[in-house]
Design brief:
Length: 101
């Protein structure tokens, strides 16, 4: 698989990850809202239950997104390094081989 094909694959993976990010923030917030509302009504907490569950959902969501970003960023960096190494290899080849490329 060429570097350009791998780069395209990573771009597509990034798009899919962005959709996952929407779900990572949306689903926990949705669930936290209803769980917090139930806690508030059941234990008569005022709005503390909802605020607490939304804060926990927010922290968990951001933790997951940051981990995904670090993973994707390291893949892009590895690809860039590989591309630089390939360019150096091509540049070091004798001029006869360069003309054939």
């Amino acid at each position: 698989m060429s570097i350009e094909e791998r780069r395209q694959e990573l771009v597509q993976k990034t798009f899919r990850l962005m959709l996952r990010v929407l779900l990572i923030f949306g689903l926990p917030a949705f669930a936290a809202f209803f769980i917090g509302e139930w806690l508030d009504k059941t234990y008569e907490l005022g709005s503390i239950g909802m605020i607490a569950t939304l804060a926990i959902a927010f922290i968990i969501s951001w933790t997951l997104v940051i981990r995904m970003w670090h993973n994707l960023n390291s893949q892009f960096k590895a690809l860039d390094i590989e591309e630089e190494n390939e360019q150096e290899t091509i540049n070091k080849q004798p001029t006869e081989r360069k003309s054939k490329l």
